[in-house]
Specification:
It contains six helices and three strands. It is mostly helical and about 130 residues long. The model has no long low-confidence stretch (mean pLDDT about 90).
């Protein structure tokens, strides 16, 4: 099971995933700046080290610089978080989750129908 990450740690991971799964510090800082999420270099480095400790990243030296590589893909993280959410909130009952999505208009009837067709194998491109 994957450990939880803070919102800011998740933004660091998203920046690395958006960069193809690897990034130098400068690329991470530039990605955060585009999102108006700049903070101090020390904070970013501390959070990157925390992500390494949690098993989300590894680092390789390139000369005097560190290259950070994601050990967890975005899809793996999303799946793990979805499972955790489903267990915590709906006690594992996916039907209740889907019912809530539909009742609260968080998923449209068209999206629901597309998903239904997809899972029945009827989603053929024309």
């Amino acid at each position: 099971m994957l450990q939880q990450v803070s919102d800011f740690e998740l933004e660091l991971m998203k920046t690395i995933w958006e960069n193809g799964g690897t990034a130098l510090y400068a690329e991470i800082a530039a990605g955060l700046e585009k999102k108006d999420m700049m903070t101090t270099k020390n904070t970013i480095i501390s959070l990157l080290l925390r992500l390494i400790d949690k098993g989300f990243l590894k680092t390789n030296k390139i000369g005097r610089r560190n290259k950070y590589t994601a050990l967890v893909s975005e899809a793996e993280y999303q799946a793990a978080q979805t499972e955790t959410f489903l267990e915590k909130i709906y006690e594992g009952d996916a039907k209740e989750l889907i019912t809530t999505l539909i009742q609260k208009d968080l998923i449209s009837a068209d999206e629901y129908e597309d998903l239904r067709k997809h899972w029945k194998g009827g989603d053929k491109t024309e």
